[in-house]
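Re: that chain you flagged

S.,

Sorry for the slow reply, it's been a week of failed gels. I finally had a moment to sit down with the sequence you sent. For the record, here it is as I used it:
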Amino acid sequence: MATPSLLFIPDISGFTKFITETELSHSKHIISELLSVIINQNELELKISEIEGDAILFYRNGDPPSFKEIINQTKKMFISFHTFLKSIEHNNVCQCGACTSATNLTLKFISHFGELEEISIDKFNKLIGSDVILVHRLLKNSIPSHEYLLLTENYLNIINDDLTNTEDWIKLEDNKEEINNFGTVKSKYIILSNLKASIPPHIKKDILKLKGRTGKLSIIINSPLLKVHSILSDIDSKKKWVKGLKKVENKNKINRINAVHTCDFSNMKMDVKTLANQVCENEITFTEEGFISGKIKIVFEYVLNEVDNGTNVLLTFYSRGSSDNNFIDRIKYKMVLKMLMNMMKSNLKRLKKYCEEKESI
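Prediction finished late last night. Pasting the structure tokens below so you have them in one place:
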């Protein structure tokens, strides 16, 4: 039996280009993160029928939410979506196409009220009915924007709300579409661009206060700058070039600022935090901080410069050391620093070999 229901679709615009023109593993993960951000802002107790790659088909049976409720729901999802994109932009480490172009993604919404039927297929509820078809057809329309909320005449007529007493950013525009088998479909839309002023500003923290430089190492790698950076900053790739590394415990699909992973060696464990990634023309500075036994802290600053034969890698160590005044602990601390220095000399050579082998494939 058909049930009167709200159909509500947030749709990520630019998805096809993003997926087809960028690295698939990272683009899929970023889209998954963004869809989760949208779902987590569901305050109207909407049910999910399907996640359709770049969109979520929400529905709610019974009386529709008011105009104000739909506006507030849209606003919350939209701001959260763009806040997350801004965090990717500022905390990004990876320089692949997906990670550097994610901020080009946009978000639109369709709100419609009609009738639908639910059929159960295994553990899922599938929605069927002409209104389900219509709401998907409305995703392709003539609205001159990629970020808007479209409200169909069916929805607006049934709520019968006063649309005049609204916030300043809400400007309703008339729209109509000619859709095969449905004829003329009337609606109103609200451009969402003005909501971006409500996105919280990114607060840049002064993370690095580097003191106690303990040494420098450098090497030239016959591989392009971005290739060397991608291997150096990829956590899972460490097993290929870090000597003695038995296992990497890493829950992060994509390395970003403040991401933490654990390197497990035969004689110690090191918790490593990504501190910074600064990209300039022909130069990238990538910085990590390693914690050993909760006392010894070492900052590894890699400065990568493009040179004729490839990439010059300059590694500088900064000690944040132990505050313990115990003489024996200070001796142990110096021994660990010396061991790390020797290990990193070997690691840079191994990094060079691995990058150049990857380049020749």
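What I noticed first: The CA atoms of residues 225 and 264 lie 28 Å apart.

Talk soon,
D.
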